[in-house]
Design goal:
alpha/beta; GMP Synthetase, Chain A, domain 3; 3 domains
Length: 493
């Protein structure tokens, strides 16, 4: 029965992905029509919008702070503010200047969040014929499913809300238990998860790679097994998202004992944006038929007064875009802060290149996440080593007479035989990745990067000190200041 359903879902994905541009125009029209009588729709003359250009002219690009006034009305119980009725949930995320963010999830948007993850797995099953993970236990390393009330609206972390939407037929296979999932302390929760899963027939494991790595290590420590595959012989599917897998691949595959199939997803509190639809292709299929109308702004224009706004039919490959969401939860012109580039236009596939606010441009170089990750892969391949975690920050205030530099804080899983040579290869790779960095090095404005090796467990200790250990929390790859860098200095090896 599942196979028949999977084939139907897969055929549907192939159909809409071949007609993605028209799907996007239809979604925009439906969103505008349905929200025309909301507060936001009236404020922005939705009844006059006919074309994509009309939409861009009427709806400014916003971040959460600019939308907060509307969110406040929803919290107070007002209906029909951003979307007809009131949200079913608020997904609570950590914010910046506004503190916590409350992202609305509506009855109409739930299928985007929860149906897409299901469909990605069903599509994998249909296209590969591999579906044995449905016959055993699955685990999603997530935040607590406990919810609180904001006014009359249930509120919690998106990963916790997901637990309430798992279909009944799958719940009998799902681990950990609800009680264990509600444990707040990550270390205590991890021990409880290991205890519940260590003797089970685990088939599918899902979560953010650094926290999955902790789970693997704790399993091997408790079981005495040499690899995860020996502990879970039927384990054959890894589902992940949130961060680039490549920096973690070698360490995770060593722990598992072999390479297994994986499906990458791109979920966010604001919407499920894309998913891997083809094994062997790292591009993620843009979720063009799921209640989101996407716009794309060239990343270097995102803070311009009148940035270029493109719909899906206007994008080009290889350009770094900030991704803008308009959806059936009432987010309009919403800048989620991520940057992407298209790897294919038939169908439309993307890869995440970084965060709008996570970059280094202390000297005009504008280094982005994609570049540092590519450089690290290149250097690690030349000087055999593997990395647990890393982050990069500029050092401007150097000792008298010394040139500034980029400082790389790296925690190794497999230490390089020659750290000095590794740093040299890393710098060469960065010169290849970023022409502005190359100019700064050759012009002797910057000295070559400095490698700061951190002791084992450094990043976990840092995240713990910030109250961000486990769940969906991630270490920023890049910072344009020294806040994270200075906090990591006590963990130097």
């Amino acid at each position: 029965m599942i196979r028949l359903y999977a084939n139907k879902v897969s055929a549907d994905i192939r159909r809409w992905s071949a007609d993605a541009v028209n799907c996007q125009h239809r979604i925009r029209e439906k969103l505008v029509l349905k929200a025309a009588k909301t507060n936001f729709g009236r404020d922005h003359s939705f009844h006059e919008i006919k074309t994509a250009q009309d939409f861009s002219d009427s709806v400014p690009i916003r971040d959460y702070e600019a939308l907060a006034g509307y969110i406040a009305k929803i919290k107070e119980g007002e209906r029909n503010v951003l979307w007809p009725g009131i949200p079913i949930y608020f997904a609570k995320t950590s914010g910046t200047t506004s503190g916590a963010k409350y992202i609305p999830l509506t009855k109409d948007s739930l299928s985007n969040h929860f149906g897409t993850a299901r469909n990605a797995l069903l599509h994998y099953y249909s296209t590969t014929g591999k579906g044995s993970f449905f016959d055993g236990k699955i685990i999603f390393l997530s935040g607590s499913p406990e919810l609180e009330k904001t006014g009359d609206i249930l509120t919690g972390r998106l990963s916790g809300i997901v637990n309430h939407q798992v279909p009944q037929w799958l719940k009998t296979n799902q681990l950990p238990s609800y009680t264990t999932n509600c444990i707040d302390d990550w270390e205590e929760k991890l021990d409880a998860i290991v205890k519940e899963t260590i003797g089970q027939d685990m088939r599918l494991i899902s979560g953010i790679p650094p926290w999955v790595q902790m789970y693997y290590e704790r399993l091997l420590e408790k079981s005495g097994k040499s690899t995860i595959k020996k502990l879970f012989p039927n384990f054959d599917m890894f589902v992940y998202g949130g961060v680039n897998f490549e920096p973690y691949r070698s360490a995770l595959e060593r722990l598992v004992g072999q390479r297994i199939d994986s499906v990458e997803t791109y979920p966010a509190s604001e919407g499920f944006i894309a998913f891997q639809d083809k094994q062997g292709d790292s591009g993620l299929l843009i979720n063009a038929n799921s209640g989101i109308y996407f716009e794309f702004v060239p990343a270097d224009e995102i803070y311009a007064e009148h940035p270029t706004r493109l719909h899906l039919g206007q994008v080009q490959m290889g350009v770094n875009y900030a991704i803008i969401i308009n959806n059936n939860a009432g987010l309009w012109g919403y800048n989620i802060g991520d940057t992407v580039e298209f790897t294919s236009l038939q169908p439309f596939r993307i890869r995440v290149t970084g965060r709008v606010k996570h970059f280094i441009s202390a000297f005009g170089e504008h280094v982005i996440g994609k570049e540092v990750e590519a450089a690290l892969r290149q250097a690690s391949a030349k000087i055999a080593c593997s990395v647990v975690e890393f982050t990069v920050a500029p050092q401007v205030n150097t000792e008298s007479g010394s040139k500034p530099y980029h400082e790389w804080f790296v925690e190794f899983d497999q230490f390089p035989s020659d750290p000095i040579k590794f740093a040299e290869e890393l710098d060469k790779a960065m010169i290849e990745q970023n022409i502005y960095y190359q100019d700064l090095i050759s012009g002797k404005i910057l000295q070559p990067l400095v490698l700061t090796v951190l002791k084992k467990g450094a990043f976990r200790e840092y995240m713990k000190s910030q109250g961000k250990l486990g769940g969906q929390n991630k270490v920023p790859r890049l910072s344009n200041d020294r806040k994270i860098a200075d906090a990591l200095l006590p963990f130097k090896q």
